[in-house]
Amino acid sequence: MWTPVAELLGPRAVALDLPGHGAQSPLRTPTSLADFAADVERRLPDGPIHLVGFSLGALVAQHIASRAPERVATLTCVSSVCRRTPDERAAVLARLASARTDFGATVERSLERWYSGSGVGAATVAETRRVLEANDVESFGHAYEIFATGDQQVSAALGAITAPTLAITGELDPGSTPDMTRRLAEAIPAARTRTVAGVRHMLPVEAPSTLVDELEALIGGRPTSPHPQASRRSTP
């Protein structure tokens, strides 16, 4: 997922597997967002870093930034959920239940939600399908439970984030919606939002150049070009 962005950023980019993902051991028991964040924090490079998280990873990044501000120079939350409404919470819990009972259907619905109508090619969709289908279903369920409940677990700590923050999502993301991105920016001091037109959930795959431009601007402390769907919130 991070390959297109990492190729543009070069060797300074370090992509870490979340617990239960990639080369990390499968999850065999229920866990918490705090445990996820502690695991990732132990594996972060030394020194203040420019921390970027996507989807579930964005919740992990928020937890790290709120609890260990000295480790985070800037924070970027890509396609992040935030403070789900009761209806939004019910919908994601229904998807969690389905993932545990009919994983094949979950794969198909995920591909539909992430890529339907996007400009992503068939090869990328096929590779995403391959990765999804290779999941350890039990481990996937434990990780998805963190995604389904993590916004509640980190909500109260968002105001403690001191790093300059970018909250960015796709205009057409059906789960991590532009409205959630606005909620995130309202909760985090000195946060800025960006909504990328025509993009769904997999923003690092669909619009890597746009994401890297925004990262470079944040890291360099530069304002970005005016954008009709961008908004800015300053520290009071």
UniProtKB/TrEMBL annotation:
InterPro entries: AB_hydrolase_1, AB_hydrolase_fold, AB_hydrolase_sf. Residues 2-213 form the AB hydrolase-1 domain. Keywords: Hydrolase. GO terms for molecular function: hydrolase activity. The keyword Hydrolase applies. The keyword Heme does not apply. It comes from the Bacteria. PANTHER family: MONOACYLGLYCEROL LIPASE. This is Alpha/beta fold hydrolase. It comes from Pseudoclavibacter terrae.
